[in-house]
From TrEMBL:
GO terms for cellular component: cytosol. Signal peptide: none annotated. It comes from Luteimonas terrae. It holds the Pfam family Ribonuc_L-PSP. One of its GO terms (molecular function) is deaminase activity. Transmembrane segments: none annotated. It comes from the Bacteria. This is RidA family protein.
Length: 134
């Protein structure tokens, strides 16, 4: 069996260890990032929704950076939102702070009833930048 090429950002290992998953895995030039939530370093959620969304993007940015990528490399995004009828517009107002310029990645929004104590999660697939030959 092949060994997974796992990417860990600095900090936040408490959440990954508690729930037994990897933050991201590199494979064939792509980075598959697990859903990132608005968790603090100890794994607890940011209590206020908008701050939870911002923290989820910051946590995502940290995972991407650890792999040598940025949000500009993201090709597919899935958002999970608890109670999207009342929260989608609030979350979507924050997205441009992190999203970047067109062309945009594909995006899917899924309404859910439970996210392990969180209200927002973002999962992405990124095409890793080509590395310069040494």
């Amino acid at each position: 069996m092949a060994t997974r090429d796992v990417v860990f950002p600095a900090g936040r290992h408490a959440l990954y260890e508690k729930h037994r998953y990897s933050p991201a895995v590199r494979s064939d030039g792509f980075l598959f990032v697990s859903g990132q939530v608005g968790s603090r370093e100890d794994g607890s959620p940011e209590p206020e929704f908008e701050q939870q969304v911002r923290r989820a993007f910051e946590n995502l940015d940290a995972v991407l950076a650890a792999a040598g990528a940025s949000f500009d490399d993201v090709v597919d995004v899935t958002f999970f939102i608890v109670d999207p009828a009342s929260r989608f517009e609030r979350a979507w107002q924050i997205v441009p702070e992190y999203w970047g310029e067109a062309p945009f990645p594909t995006a899917t929004v899924v309404g859910v009833t439970w996210l392990a104590g969180f209200d927002f999660e973002i999962k992405v697939v990124a095409k890793l930048p080509a590395r310069d030959a040494d």
